[in-house]
Amino acid sequence: MRIVLHIGSSKTGTTALQTSLTQQAGFLARQGILYPAVRSRPINHHFLAMHLRERTGLPRVFRSIYKNRPDLLSRDFEANWNDVRRQIRKYKPHTLVLSSECLFNASDLERGAEFRDQLRQFSDDISIVAYIRQPSAMYLSGLQQTLKSYGGFHPPAAANFRQGIEFYETLFNCQANVAAYDRTTLANGDIVTDFVQRHLPTIDVRQLKFDPLQLNETLSAEIMSILQDYRRVNHPDADSVPSIEHRHFRMQLQALEHRFGLHRRPSMHEGIGHFIDHASVDLLWLRETRGISFRGIEYDAIRPAADNPYRNCSRVADICEVDEDRKQEILMRLMKKAVTPSIRMPAYIDSWLRRRLGNRTLRSIHAAMRAIKTRVVG
What we know:
Distance between the termini: 63 Å
Number of helices: 17
CATH class of the largest domain: Alpha Beta
CATH topology of the largest domain: Rossmann fold
């Protein structure tokens, strides 16, 4: 059996890929390819990073769940592995696909050896797969993702992806399969098509049928700024703890923004993207060892940054162009929605009145009620 271990990196279409593989898990299994379901997460295999990164920092997705309970972490880790083992015995696949961007930042060689040995219980034929995105685009996308759940973020800085790739190359004594996450170079401009063609060549990608979901929708700079203000005021001591309340608030903001045509893609202040890209010396390594380069970067100008002029950036407005008028309009629209009472005539009464509009008195009552509703709801 061959194992395809997809390690990310983050913000390279991982959710779209994982969702598509999950949707097609049944079809893939019939073709001899197993994308196993596990109990910890519905579409991915983040549990693989539970032990691999335990000492160097649990992935954020598990931090608030396990905290200081290594016994629960170990129990759930083993339960997920048992799920994988059972499915391997059931389907007897020729290819096992495991995917988690949480794996990318692993660096603990001792834990890594344990992880490698666990995988080799299934097979010694292991391929490491990684996609790399242009650092400036990755930072902006990561900023949006962070602010969907949290209030704070890391300031702009050079990207470090060489360490993560070389960690796995050392661990498995092989060269990782690295590709650029760039829609101009991905097969069909799509991460799913590209991944299947590169790593699951026995599958005709035209046979894959999946729902085109709107995944990881782009947040405007205005909504990012509102979300950060909301966390700062309402949860100043729990800034790093995700909440359902925060998610619902974000969804309301996005719905209003789209309803009134206020959504704009965010853009960083001039100079920030240039700084991130040209301080990322790992781009030189990527070009030299993999032949991968990104457009718009002056490779001769790449060098380690002696000083980071953006190290103290902590507000969305420090990073992105925030239209204060548009931000204010979104907030006012939200306030109007919050204070507007929901008055709705029961359907059966409305129907009864409609059937008797020939009655002058009832017609007057019906018209008065509609006028009141219109005036109150707006």
